[in-house]
Amino acid sequence: MHRDLLNVSYDENAIRKRVIELGLRLAADYAGKNPVFLGILNGAFMFLSDLVRACDFPLELRFLRASSYGASVVTSGTVKLTEPIDSPPLTGRHVLIVEDILDSGVTLSRIRELLLGENPASLRLCAFLDKTSCRRLPIEADYVGFSCEASFFVGYGLDYAGRYRNLPYIGVLKPEIYETG
Ligand code: IMP
Ligand code: MG
């Protein structure tokens, strides 16, 4: 375990097992629909790459970049999006937003609003972690890896100030790391 962590909350085995279960559920819901999986960068890169390998049906991939934290453990409330949707438009497509973690819901509410403007055939949300008690806006994920407590997690794509994304497991960051900088 990395020394900046308090614990390992979800180890590689638990993650692998859960991703396979999600892939089976997605296959039941999306096979034959050629959905667009829209990954939210940077955090979702690792989950998305595992998830698509667990999805044994045709799909397309797109990416969107969002950031609301900067070097902080509390969401700023303002979401920065780069060029939101690349062409062709998502009109008539079945779209699944894939996100690392759903926290206040500010980021995903904003993204959902933008995507709905493109008139997709359907729009659902898949988040690997769900901090259910932290919501500031009413938004729920249709597919969730794990519901978790309100701690600050890193690893498996999740970062603090750009670090720890490459850890293959997820753990709680020691508060002294962000309290002292
Ligand atoms: P929201 O807009 O508050 O729902 O925040 C969503 C984004 O905040 C996620 O995509 C993450 O990038 C980031 N985030 C929220 N909680 C955590 C955490 O525990 N660790 C790392 N990043 C987090
Ligand atoms: Mg993110």
Q: Strand order within the widest sheet?
A: 4-3-2-5-6-7
Name of the top-level CATH class: Alpha Beta
Q: Strand count, sense and closure of the main sheet?
A: 6 strands, mixed
Identify every distinct bound molecule in the structure, by name, code or SMILES.
inosinic acid, magnesium ion
Number of helices: 4
Helix content: 10-25%
CATH fold-level name: Rossmann fold
Low-confidence stretches: none
Q: What is the SS-derived class?
A: alpha/beta
Any idea what the CATH architecture is? 3-Layer(aba) Sandwich
Distance between the termini: 21 Å
Give a verbal description of the structure.
- By secondary structure, the chain is an alpha/beta fold.
- It has one domain: Rossmann fold (3-Layer(aba) Sandwich).
- Helices cover 24% and strands 28% of the residues.
- The strands form two sheets. The protein has a six-stranded mixed sheet with strand order 4-3-2-5-6-7, sandwiched between helices. It has a three-stranded antiparallel sheet with strand order 1-9-8.
- Helix 1 packs across helix 2.
- It starts with a strand and ends with a helix.
- The chain binds inosinic acid and magnesium ion.
Topology diagram in text:
Layout: E1 5-10, H1 12-30, E2 36-41, H2 45-53, E3 60-67, E4 80-81, E5 94-102, H3 106-116, E6 122-130, E7 143-147, E8 153-154, E9 170-173, H4 175-179
Parallel strand pairs: 2-3, 2-5, 5-6, 6-7
Antiparallel strand pairs: 1-9, 3-4, 8-9
Helix pairs in contact: 1-2
Inosinic acid binds next to strand 5, helix 3 and strand 8.
